[in-house]
Amino acid sequence: MNKVAKIYVAGHRGMVGSAIVRELKRQGYNNIITKTHSELDLCRQDEVEKFFADEKPEYVFLAAAKVGGIIANSESPADFMYQNMMIEMNVINAAFHNNCKKLEFLGSSCIYPKLAPQPMREDCLLTSALEQTNEAYALAKISGLKYCEYLNRQYGTDYISVMPTNLYGPNDNYHSKNSHVLPALIRRFHEAKIENKSSVTCWGDGSPLREFLYVDDLANLCVFLMSNYSGNETVNAGTGKEISIKELTKLVAEIIGYNGEILWDTTKPNGTPRKLLDVSKAQKLGWTYKTELKDGIRLAYEDFLNNTVRVDR
Predict the structure, then answer these.
(1) Please, which contacts does 295-299 make with residues 24 or more away whose CB atoms are closer than 8 Å?
(2) Does 229 qualify as catalytic in the annotation?
(3) Does residue 237 contact residue 218 with C-beta atoms inside 8 Å?
(4) Please, where are the H alpha helices in 129-176?
(5) Is 299 exposed, middle or buried (0-12, 13-18, 19+ CB in 10 A)?
C-alpha cells in the first residue's frame, strides 16, 4: 500500500479495528477513513453503497462484526447470523462495485470444525461439523470469506481473509455477559479481589485448551498481509501455543493479585475441547507474533483499569 492510499477501516471502535488503526498510523498511513455506527449502519445496504460511492476507498480492512462469548452466541444465534451476514455482504459487495484495490476480511478460528485435526490448518475448513454454541457466527464468517474467494475467482479481485485465534488486549469488551473468556476472567478476578471474595466459580471443568493472540500483534499481521499476500485461502493468525482454561485462570488470578479459591461449575459447557491454529503459513510469509501471554495479560489488565467506563457497554 502506498502511504497516501485511502484506507477504510470498518469497525474502528472495536478491539480489532482500533488496533489496525493504531498499526496503520504507526507505520505512517494517515489517510484513514472511519465511521461510527451512528454515521454509517453497515447493516443498511443503501447507506453502505452511498458511502463507498462517495469515498471510493482504495483499501478496506473489514473488522466490523457482532461478537460475543458462549452465552451471547447461544442465546442470540439469529442476531449473530443476520447482523454479521449483512455487514459482510454489504461491505464486500460495495467494495467490489466501487473498484476497491484490495479488501481484507477478518474472521475467527471458530469457522473450523469442532473436532478438526490439531493444530488446525487453513484447508480443514468445511471438512466436518461446527461447534454448536457458535455455529451461527461461524456460518456467517464462512460466508464472508467464501464471498471474497468467489469474487476473486469470478472477477479477478484481490480480496483476502485472515482467521485470528482468541484475541485480547486494549479496547476489549469486559461486559459481564457478552465478553469472551480472557476479558471475562480479568473482570471476574478483579471484582473478586476488590470485594474480597473467598472464591471465584468458572464455567466447565477447565480442561479445554485455547490459544490467545494479543490484538496489536494481529493488527501488525493484517497490515503485513495487505502488502505481502494474495490468495483464495485464508491465513491463520495465532501464536501456535496453547494453554488450558484452568491454567489460564491461575495466570489471570496471579497477575491481578487474587488469592482466593478457584471453583468449577461442571454443569456449564466447556465449548470446543481444543482450538490451536497451524500458523506455519503466516510464518513462511515472514511474520511471527511478538507478545507473550503473560505480558499481554498485564497490558490488558492495565487497559481494563484505565477504561472501566467501558466495562458494561
Answers:
(1) 296/168, 296/169, 296/212, 296/214, 297/168, 297/182, 297/186, 297/251, 297/252, 297/255, 298/255, 299/169, 299/170, 299/214
(2) no
(3) yes
(4) 135-155
(5) middle
pLDDT of the chain along its 313 residues, tens only?
Answer: 999 999 999 999 999 999 999 999 999 999 999 999 999 999 999 999 999 999 999 999 999 998 877 777 778 899 999 999 999 999 999 999 999 999 999 999 989 998 899 999 999 999 999 988 889 999 999 999 999 999 999 999 999 999 999 999 999 988 766 677 899 999 999 999 999 999 999 989 999 999 999 999 999 999 999 999 999 999 999 999 999 999 999 999 999 999 999 999 999 888 778 889 999 999 999 999 999 999 999 999 999 999 864 454 4
Q: What's the half-sphere exposure (Cβ side, CA atoms, 13 Å) at 190? A: 18
> Using an 8 Å Cβ cutoff, are 155 and 209 in contact?
no
DSSP designation for 261 = E
Output phi, psi for 115, to 5 deg: -110, 40
Catalytic residue among 8, 112, 137, 159: 137
